[in-house]
Amino acid sequence: MKKLSSLALVLAVSVSLTACGANSENTGNNTGSTTNETTNTGTNNAAGETAGTEELVPEEGASLLVWESKEERPFVEQMAKEFKEKYGVDVRIEEIGAGDQVTKLTTDGPAGIGADVVLFPHDNLGRAVSAGLVLENDSFAEEAKSENAENAVQAVTYDGKLYGYPRSVETYAMFYNKDLIATPPTTMDEVKEFAKTFNDTKANKYAFMWDIGNFYFSYPFLATTGGYVFGGNGQDAADIGLNNAGAVEGAEYFKSLKDSVLPLKSGDVNYDIKKGLFTGGTLAMNIDGPWAIGDLKKSGINFGAAPIPSINGKASVSFSGVKAWYVNAFTQYPNAAKLFARYASTKEAQLADFSLTGAIPANNDASADPAVSGDELIKAFVEQFKNSQPMPSIPEMGNVWTPIGAAMSDMWNEGKDAKTSLDNAVKQIQDANAAAGQ
């Protein structure tokens, strides 16, 4: 959640006035007067992809500014070098956290000092589109749709239009201590059985933990059995599925875990506490994201990763996030910007990103590459991602977290009725959405 909504899901700056984006006179979508195209059948394009019958040509004198976080700068530096060699276009990089870029683009884009190409988690897309900050991915839409995981493409699509160039994905899965449990359970019922003989509250020994009070991590207990946040691929705010029959079924199962698996109040199981127990060797299984791998390796524990155990016979459905490139709607060089976004999101580019930063590819072929599929830890997250749902990117998602989080806590801590709790949460969400629309 911290990564996805900063996140981050949802999760973080000054910018040089010499940015090679649009100047203050360029205040619209400048894709017409500066666009040059040339017929090119079968030419190898960015990072190994094959172009169609027409390939974009960078505008004369084009240069680009790209925003990227400090952690992933090595990857973008490599892409910038290769892009310069191929297209003769200089690419400068400025360190801006992915979760901060839409906020910064809101002011810097119209002012003509924003980056030409930006990167942010998909749950910020609705805000960016509503403000007119990003261009559609039109020139490379077919490539993006055919090459990347379907739910990754869905995540970077808004109101039926594709805007993003998918680059990486993330969700959460189950880490397990191999010295405490040699074979990870595949069902939540198996987790219950293991907990009967393993749990020892006096010794702080627990079989299984997740951040109970954080709806991001508790979502599988509603979604796996048929609940959902918003219908219409997460974009229909009028269709809320958090209190349907499937969600109620899952909530009842969720409640059952307090006595059988984790006999603690939700407030006693936060992210840092459970991470400490896991690295300390008294927690057998821990739900967390791939961002935790580095620290877990440093801890020295003997651990593995696996998909989240199934719930009531169904594969667990987690929330997922997708990072993608987007082209600033105010860029002076839309052709060059689109070419870079494409170049830095191909299979080859995503494999380079994985090699340099550990980012999990959105590209199907890259995910299947031995470098990725052969990594047992990453493989678990790739498998879990296949059963994930992108967090809704519409602005109404902001009205969901508090009411549904409170409902989950009430059910867990006080044993309140699942249907009543979920109905109350949905009513609060609906009221908040209605108030925002007035």
UniProtKB/TrEMBL annotation:
Segments of skewed composition (Low complexity): 21-55
SUPFAM superfamilies named in the record: Periplasmic binding protein-like II
One example GO MF annotation: carbohydrate transmembrane transporter activity
GO cellular component: ATP-binding cassette (ABC) transporter complex, substrate-binding subunit-containing
UniProt keyword annotations, A-Z: Cell membrane, Lipoprotein, Membrane, Signal, Sugar transport, Transport
InterPro entries named among the record's database cross-references: Maltose/Cyclodextrin-bd, SBP
CDD domains associated with the record: PBP2_Maltose_binding_like (cd13586)
One Gene Ontology term from the biological process aspect of the record: maltose transport
Subcellular location as annotated: Cell membrane
Matches recorded under PROSITE patterns: PROKAR_LIPOPROTEIN (PS51257)
Chief site of localization: membrane
Region spans: Disordered: 21-57
Keyword Transferase: no
Signal peptide (UniProt feature, chain positions): 1-21
Pfam families: SBP_bac_8
Topological category with respect to the lipid bilayer: Lipid-anchor
Family: Belongs to the bacterial solute-binding protein 1 family.
The protein, known as: Maltodextrin-binding protein
Species of provenance: Paenibacillus phyllosphaerae
